[in-house]
Amino acid sequence: MTELANVLYEKFGYREFRPGQERVIRSVLEGKDTIAILPTGTGKSLCYQLPSYLLPGSTLIVSPLVALMEDQASSMRRKGEKRVVALNSFLSYQEKKRILSQLQLYKFIFVSPEMLLQEKVENRLRQLDLSLIVVDEAHCISQWGFDFRPDYLRIGEIFNRARPPILALTATADQQVIQDISIYLHMKQPIVEKQSLDRPNLTYVIEKMNSSDKTKWIEERVEQTIGPGIIYVASRKRADQLATILTEKGYSVAAYHAGKEQEDRALIQEQYIRGEVEWICATNAFGMGIHKDDIRQVIHEHLPHTIASYIQEVGRAGRDGKLACAVLLYAQEDENITRFIIHNDMPDRFEVEHYTERMQAGLSPAESAVLAGLSETAKRVIDFYLSQMPLEKVYARIEELQRNKEMDLLQMLSVIHSEICIRKKILDLFGEEHETNLDTCCSVCGLGEIDWLRKTKEAEVQRTMTYSWDERIDVLLGI
Q1: What is the mean pLDDT of the chain?
Q2: Top-confidence residue, 207 or 286
Q3: Which of these, 206, 208, 218, 204, lies nearest to 332 by C-alpha position?
Q4: How many domains does the chain have?
Q5: In whole angstroms, what is the distance from residue 38 CA to residue 272 CA?
Q6: What is the pLDDT averaged over residues 245-269?
Q7: What domain range is 327 assigned to?
Q8: Residue 243, burial from CB neighbour count under 10 angstroms (0-12, 13-18, 19+)
Q9: What are phi and psi of 280, to 5 degrees?
Q10: Is residue 187 domain-shared with residue 206, that is, in the same domain?
Q11: What's the pLDDT score for residue 36?
């Protein structure tokens, strides 16, 4: 047995690596910058955890969401690893100060891009013996960095000098995303390990209907078919509304979105993982890093903005290898609604002009942003580009981003309106070939009755549980 195989068994209890894992780990141990594109559920976290046990210093993991890093850190602690910490915005000043003073004691350090860029954190990390830098969910550099969280584009600037190897992990990345990851992380001739996106156990279904019929369709689906499942919706308001409708019908459903308190989100997530809630009505704030292998259905009530985000979300179904189903409900008006949302998020030329003119007149950036009608996100985006290029190029960059968003939407629509196999169309967009014929492939190929999805006996209606605060603490602690 090789040294890697020994560590795999002794630390993780596995006899064999999953496809791609060993090549990624060997690349990291050889000190090479590496981009690993491994489908959801194929054990990406092992690709940094295992080599970390063979490397002398600490491993820094840059993670996009507090819930994700807390989930990963908690999972490691449950498995016996005590030298793990998550630096995030929910820490009190005293907690953060204490952790920073003891940072050298930790083997695994989780941090968000925004926290990473804080001067005290950056300076403290420079004093450490780091053996590996990991950027988890690295597709966020492309999907969020340019127009949502520009701090993602600055990660590479911090480690542009002498540094250990960087490992970028993601489940989906086309050639442009791979290029963005490499450029913005300042990677040096990275090794790219890419496994197929194809999930043969996943059935793709597109249902075209009127918007007014979607609620009834979902009600009947939840009544007639098995869970657990996730129903993705476009807004927080709709998540609450749909969860209420289904709960009043007697189904075990909860709403999840960024508008809820952190402790409420943690409780709902824990209930879902433990099987106490069968269905989640959620915005895309839910799912990243959720370790629940038996999700049988992912339903999209809205039109996803990009094919990459769609694949990320449906990839949360069937991680146990058993059959699972992804359904997208499409109405003709969805296209205009989604187009309005994605373009409304971005500042336009007039807003940029107004913002910069107010600052030139002597107002503060905060005051200028208010007068220009900018959201905090739009302000951060403009500030980032103004720090990188002259004003005329900022205008051009904003226009380019608008065009890219339109192209992403058109790609998603091409899947919905395609008359060829949905699986084949998706894989084509990511440069992969598909030849295998599956009986449970997609709605274009023809499915007939999906018997395995139907409830075989009268489902027991679970009462939605209302917890007192002491009961909530017990659930969160797993008692």
Answers
A1: 86
A2: 207
A3: 208
A4: 2
A5: 25
A6: 90
A7: 202-336+412-469
A8: buried
A9: -120, 125
A10: no
A11: 95
